[in-house]
Amino acid sequence: MKRYGMVVKVKPDKLEEYKRLHADPWPGVLKMIAQCNIRNYSIYHKDDMTFAYFEYVGDDFDADMAKMAADPTTQKWWDVCKPLLEPLETRAEGEFWADMEEVFHCE
Q: Is the pTM for the entire model greater than 0.70?
């Protein structure tokens, strides 16, 4: 299992819509998240920043993320959500959510 943390900004005037969408996510999106070996997925918000945490339990993260990206329902969900968000300027090429480095963990 590998832990992931990612961050993106939410446009201030879009926060309530973002929260509304995530209060009732589409079942097909939740199913694909599970099929792609993501567990314990949480999203947090503070000021204009949104932080996502999840645990990956699969064997091929890149393949699972490609599977998710190819899913038509997930693509439609992203089409609804992405306009509400603003990626960090410091993100790596090809990222929308910026990956974060884990610097501490305690069980």
A: yes
